[in-house]
Amino acid sequence: MIGDVNTISELPTLPSSFRPILWSLRWRDIDTWVDREDIILNTLNEGNLSQWRWIRKVYGDKEIGRIIKQRMISEFHPESRRLAELVFNTSITRNAR
Prior knowledge:
The protein is built from 3 helices and no strands. The protein is an all-alpha fold. It has a domain at about 30-95.
């Protein structure tokens, strides 16, 4: 189970409110599962509260925490990093890949 979804094929379409924070991706080609790391990272850095709630509902805390742990500190805005660490009960410590 991923968040509130039982299978990858049941993942909902990304709401259009994400378009401004995913400007680096071709909107019509975004796959909610394949592009989840970009969706999550951009949402944590640039997203609003409703977008945070959406990723939490769709991907779940466990998947988001896993993705956070494998990303580098420099990929997060300092204030976003601290909030993500608190909300998802994890820490971001990677300085290099």
